[in-house]
Amino acid sequence: MPSVQMRSSPSVSPPRTVTDLKQRVIACLNRLSDRDTQSLAAAELDSIALNLSPESFSLFINCLQTTDSSAKTPVRKHCVSLVSVLSRSHGDSLAPHLPKLVSTVLRRLRDPDTSVRAACATASVDMTTNITEPPFSVLAGPMIETLIHDCDTNAQIGAAVCLAAAVDAAGDPDVEQLQKALPKIGKLLKSEGFKAKPELLGAIGSVIGAVGGRNSDRAVMDWLLPNVLEFLSSEDWHARKAAAEVMARVATAEVELAPLYKKACLCVLESRRFDKVKLVRETMNHTLSLWKHLGEDDSPESSSSRKRSKDKNTNIATSSKLNDVEDESKEKRPLGTRRALFPAKPKLSKDKENVTIKPQLVAVVQSSDGEESSSSSQRNNAEEELSLIRNQITRIEKQQSGLLDLFQRFMESSQNEMQSLGRRVRCLETSFSVLSTDLLVSRNITQNGNHKRNAHLQN
C-alpha cells in the first residue's frame, strides 16, 4: 500500500460523535467492495485513522474486526493495512490497544489470499517499530503460539513470516522469550503436520539472529543444525534457500558456538554449492564464504565486519520474507485437525544424501570438545571423506542404473515395434493371398462360363 501522509484530507471532515464515526467506518468498509468506490473509500478510511482521538481507538479497531472471511479481498486487506496506518500515525498512544491490534492481524493469517497475508507481515513490522512501550513479548507471544499450534497451512505461512518480520524489525527483542521458543519452533521441522517449512526456516533464522549468541544453548544447536542441514537437499528450492540463510545467520550470530560446527558444516555446504537454481546457488556460496572465514580473525576490524554482515543479512532476510509472501504460489493441501504436530517417530528421509548429513554432523559435534587425540580427529576426517566418496559413488550408480533402465525400456519398445511390424506384414501377406485366391477363382469361373456359352452357340 502507498505510504500514508501524516495529515488529513481537507475534503473529509472528522466525525462529530461516536455514532457518526461507527456509521462512517462501516459505510466505507461496504464501499470497499465496489470497484468504482474502492479508492475513495480507502482514502477516507485512511484519513479517519489518521485523525482519530485516543478515545476512539477501541471503537475503530472493533469496526475493523467486524469483517469476516466472507468479505471481498480489498476489504480484508485494507482492514489489516489500517493497522499499519494506525501504528505509524499514533505510535505509543496505541500501547493499551496493542493486544487487540495483534488479534486483528492474527485473525487474517488463515486468509487464502497472499496479498492479505503480506499486509499482515507489514502490519507486524509497523507495530513493532512504532509501538515500543509494551514489551516485545505482547506481540511475539501470540504469533509464536499460532505458529506452534495452528494446523492450517495458510496460518502457518502467515505466522512464520509475521514472526520473522517482527523479530528482524525489533530494536530490543525479548531474548529470553525467543531463546525459550527456539526449541519448540525447531521441533516443527520434523513435524508432518507443519507444511510451511521454508517460512519456518526463515523464522528460525530470524530468532537465531535476534538471540545473537547471548545465552545460547549448545544442546539446542546440537539438535537444530543437523535438521537445518537436511533441508539443503530438499526438493523445494525455497526450502534450500531458506536453510542456507539460516546457516548464514548462525555463522554471523553464534560467534562462540559456530566454530565448533565449522568442519561438518563446510563439508555439507561444499557439496551443495552447485545448486541448479541460481538464487539458491548464490545464497549457498555466500553462506559458504561466511563459514570459511569463521574464526580466522578476531580483530576489532573483523568483528565490525561481521556485525555489518549480520545487519545486512537481517535487512535482506526481512525484505525477502515480505516479498516471498507476495510471490508465493502454494498448493492447498488438506490437513487433519487432529494430526499431532510432534510425532513420536519422525520418518526418515528417502534421499540417501539426507540420511548421511545428520549422523555426519552429530559425529563431528560429539568429537569437538578437544579431548580426543589427533589420531581420532584424523580418523573422523577419513570417515567424512569416505562418506562423501560413498555418496558420490551412490549418485553415479543411480545415474548408471537410470541409463540402463532407459536403454532397457528403449530395447523393449523397439522389440515391441518390430513384433507389431511383423504382425502387420503377415496380415498383409494373408490379405494378398486371399485376394489372389479370390481373383483366381473368379477368373476360372469366368473362363468356364465362356466355354459353356461357346459350346451352346455351336450346338
UniProtKB/TrEMBL annotation:
Ranges in coiled-coil conformation: none
Gene3D superfamilies: Leucine-rich Repeat Variant
Pfam family, one: TOR1L1_N
GO MF assignments: microtubule binding
Domain TORTIFOLIA1/SINE1-2 N-terminal: 20-292
Gene Ontology CC terms: microtubule
Region (Disordered): 294-353, 365-384
PANTHER family: MICROTUBULE-ASSOCIATED PROTEIN TORTIFOLIA1, TORTIFOLIA1-LIKE PROTEIN 5
Protein name: TORTIFOLIA1-like protein 5
Species this protein is from: Raphanus sativus
